[in-house]
Amino acid sequence: MIIFGTRSREIRPKQATSYDCDNCNSKGTVNFIFLAKYLHIFWIPVLPLSKKGISQCSHCKQVRYQNEMTPKMKQDCATASATAKRPITHYFGLFLIGFLFCLIVFNIFKNSANKAEYLASPKINDVYEVKENDLYTLYKISEIKGDTLVFKMHNKAVERSSGLFDLKKNFKNDYSNDVIKMDKNWLKTMSDKGYIMGVNRE
Ligand SMILES: [Zn+2]
Fold first, then answer.
1. What's the 72 CA to ligand 1 centre distance in angstroms?
2. Where exactly are the transmembrane stretches of this chain (predicted)?
């Protein structure tokens, strides 16, 4: 099964000079054709690769590559290349990567905006993503007394911050009954120092 590979598509330039064929002597039958190569995954074009110009006689089918062209033909070929545009679909993968990148950047901004807002006005059941020593875990607000927040600590800790996703999803209610109290200003300092990775609110 072919998952990915390269393919070429023939593109005819919109404007180009025609030549007489010196092989079959037909008049004006030699034209440029461009082979636009692209990378495909499951036959969906994702990335444009090279674009090569060749000439072909429509009568005798003789093909000439660029290294076999006269200097004048080579120059015309380069000019014609600008009018042989590849289909926009060849850029599909690039658009997708750009889109995903924007989505990630947007989420980073949104998370950091949420974190600042939730830290400033905490609510019961807010879940804090906390870095402790070299481990990551969750703290959940169980009580708010003025500027003091009472947290329940999660029973599990993970080695990577990405593992917190699993704790939030599969061990949602696995919090200990032991509590830890923290002052709002202290939390702000912890956050500035990078010990609070994020704050989640449902
Ligand atoms: Zn010919």
1. 18
2. 91-109
Q: Give the Å distance between the CA of 57 and the centre of ligand 1.
A: 5
Q: How far apart are CA 162 and CA 159, in angstroms?
A: 9
List, for residues 163-187, the tens digit of each pLDDT value. 999 999 999 899 998 899 999 889 9
Q: 18 C-alpha vs ligand 1 centroid, how far in Å?
A: 12
Tell me the CA–centroid distance for residue 28 and ligand 1, in Å.
9
pLDDT at 20 over 90: yes
143 vs 125: CA distance, rounded Å: 8
35: Cβ contacts below 8 Å, ≥ 6 apart = 8, 9, 10, 11, 51, 52, 53, 54
Query: What distances in angstroms separate CA 92 from CA 55, 62, 82, one per listed residue?
Result: 28, 34, 20
Q: How many residues does the chain have?
A: 202
Burial 104-134 (b: 16+ CB within 10 A, else e): eeeeeeeeeeebeebbeebeeebbbbbbeee
Find all residues with CB under 8 Å of 52, minimum gap 6, and list them. Answer: 34, 35, 37, 65, 66
pLDDT over threshold 90, residue 129: yes
Domains of the chain, by residue range, sit at 4-95, 117-200
Name every residue whose Cβ is closer than 8 Å to that of residue 155 and which is 6 or more positions away in sequence: 171, 174, 175, 176
